[in-house]
Design brief:
The protein is α/β, with parallel strands linked by helices. The protein has a single domain, classed as UDP-N-acetylmuramoyl-L-alanine:D-glutamate ligase (3-Layer(aba) Sandwich), CATH 3.40.1190.20. It has 11 helices and 13 strands. It has helices at residues 3-8, 43-53, 68-79, 124-128, 150-163, 182-194, 203-210, 216-226, 264-277, 282-297, 309-318; strands spanning 11-15, 19-23, 37-41, 57-65, 83-90, 98-101, 110-113, 137-141, 168-171, 198-202, 230-234, 240-244, 247-251.
């Protein structure tokens, strides 16, 4: 199955964590808050929710804690329409990840609790239980590789997806706090990138894999030339460069008054994939991903902020962007 054909099936198996997010009212610091909104979080779960809200189908593969927080996460997955058939509760001391973040840019604080994370307990048996023939593509984010047994399970999922003819879509998503050392992270994420058909990351992440931010663009070009069909090199307010079929596609962004810095990457990937699935060309798909990212950073929450097709159509109609590509 070709990469584009797989994505256009619009049925994704997403490997990685689901967690609980807590965030206070817009503009309020965590330490000053008296009320918090609870919702779903975790990069992979956010991507899955974004895909479903845009009209695609997504199934999540992970583990959750066998407690009230784990059940909260399962309920939220179902509320968003994400298939949780492959989400397995785990007992003992494992706990779901918890993120507290603020809806403000100046002085923004995010506090992530990941000690003994339940999603890192995902095993090879968990990913072997998936019928990959149901899906058009596998999607994952880099955090899934940060610890064992999740790391080996994720690489096993890559192998099983490849055997079933599925393209592999990899969001680098480097989170230093999840990894034992930067050296291990660089080696493992580079290995995952070399096995992927679509790679999405920002300039810091590609630079990290390459051993220096000044080497990141060359790393993206090398991956596109050697193995990946599509590589998206994101540069924040400078836009993105997409490498595909020997071409470099430069795209701008949609400036907004940001409420927070979180959730943009997850929404970008969901928006890009669903745009390809809807038949848009790659440049348009990247721009629609950028529009989805802008939509999310201007609203509270991550999963709840993901746009519907109607909302992103209205956003594009109302917006004067994108900016000129650099």
């Amino acid at each position: 199955m070709s990469v584009i054909a797989g994505i256009r099936k619009n049925e994704f198996v997403v490997v990685g964590r689901v967690g609980m997010d807590l965030f206070p009212e817009p503009g309020v610091a965590t330490e000053d808050a008296t009320q918090f909104t609870a919702d779903m979080g975790g990069s992979s779960a956010n991507i899955a929710a974004g895909i479903v809200k845009l009209g695609g189908r997504a199934s999540l593969v992970t583990r959750v804690s066998d407690d009230a927080v784990g059940r909260f996460c399962l309920n939220k997955l179902r509320d968003y329409g994400v298939d949780a058939s492959y989400v397995t509760p785990v007992g003992g001391e494992a706990r779901n990840s918890l993120a507290l973040y603020e809806s403000r840019v100046a002085g923004h604080q995010s506090v992530i609790y990941r000690n003994g994370a339940a999603d890192f307990e995902m095993t090879e048996a968990d990913v072997e239980a998936v019928d990959y023939r149901r899906f058009g593509a596998l999607v994952t984010a880099g955090t899934v590789f940060a610890a064992e047994p999740s790391r080996s399970a994720a690489f096993r999922a890559f192998a099983l997806a490849r055997e079933a003819g599925l393209p592999i879509i990899f969001d680098v998503d480097y989170r230093p706090y999840s990894w034992p050392t930067p050296e291990i992270a660089a080696e493992v994420l580079s290995r995952a990138g070399a096995l992927s058909d679509v790679i999405v990351g920002n300039d810091d992440e590609f630079g990290f894999m390459a051993g220096g931010k000044d080497k990141g663009l060359a790393k993206a070009r090398t991956l596109a030339a050697a193995s990946a069909s599509i590589v998206v090199y994101k540069m924040g307010e400078k836009g993105a460069i997409t490498f595909a079929e020997g071409q470099e596609i430069h795209t701008g962004i949609y400036p907004v008054a940001a409420l927070k810095p979180t959730g943009a990457g997850d929404s970008f990937l969901a928006g890009m994939l669903c745009a390809i699935a809807d038949g848009h060309d790659l440049k348009t798909a990247v721009l629609r991903g950028s529009a989805c990212a802008a939509f999310v950073v201007a609203r509270p929450g991550c999963a709840p902020a993901m746009p519907t097709p109607q909302e992103i159509t209205q956003f594009l109609a109302d917006h004067t962007g994108p900016t000129q590509a650099t």
